[in-house]
Each structure stands twice: as structure tokens, then as C-alpha cells.
# Entry
Amino acid sequence: MFFVNCGDVIAGFRIQLENGWKISVQFGSGCYGSNHTGWEPDCFDWNDNLKCAEAQATLAEIWALHDSYDPDKKESLPSEREQKNYYNAHHYPENPIGWRNSEEVVKFITTVSNLPLPSLRIIGFEARKNDTEGKEE
# Structure
């Protein structure tokens, strides 16, 4: 499923994948991409014929979130470490990635389309990485 948002401040799209991951590609004011501080010349225009706004960018911000993410469940977990693991399992990556060109966006979409379910990610690399951080060898 596809979703598009385009307004006088932000523009972009979201894709809901069959594996439950939602990909966000955003550009516009406040996003980490083209038009970050405001619309660059000729990047945003209202099309009277189509009755909609048209926006374009060369760089975008990307992020993914799994459909099963529940912020209330995260807050109910007993430790900060479990909350962080739950959050990281349902977001890819942990924070948005900015300043990506179209080729990088396509690679990101391909990567996310192959991500495992969050329950598998939480016991995967991210959890093992958190276990070893700060330990001396």
C-alpha cells in the first residue's frame, strides 16, 4: 500500500510492505534531505490543473517501522535495556537516515523488504551487540 503526503512544509511517501514493515521517505522542511530549511527554488509548486501540490527533491530522509510496534508495550517493559531492544527490533535503523539519493533509497527499500519479523531481530545482532557494549576483552 502507498501513502503520499505533500503540503507547504513537508512532502514524501510511505510504503506498507507485505512483511509488515512501513518505509518512510520524506523531504521538505525539517527533514534530513533536500529542502531541509525550506523549499529550494522550483522544488514545490501548487498545480491548479491537478488541484494538488507537486514537490521534488534530490536527497531524502528514510526510516522504517514495523506495523506491530506498540509504544505502550515498550513503556511497560521492566528495564531500560528491554525497552531499547524492543524499540530497535521494530525500527530500522534506530533513527532516521538523512541525505540519501534515489539509488540509496531503492537499496534501503530492498533491504527492508528482506528484514525478519521484529521478534527475530530482538534476539539477533542488535541484542548481541548491546550485550557486548562496554565489556572489556
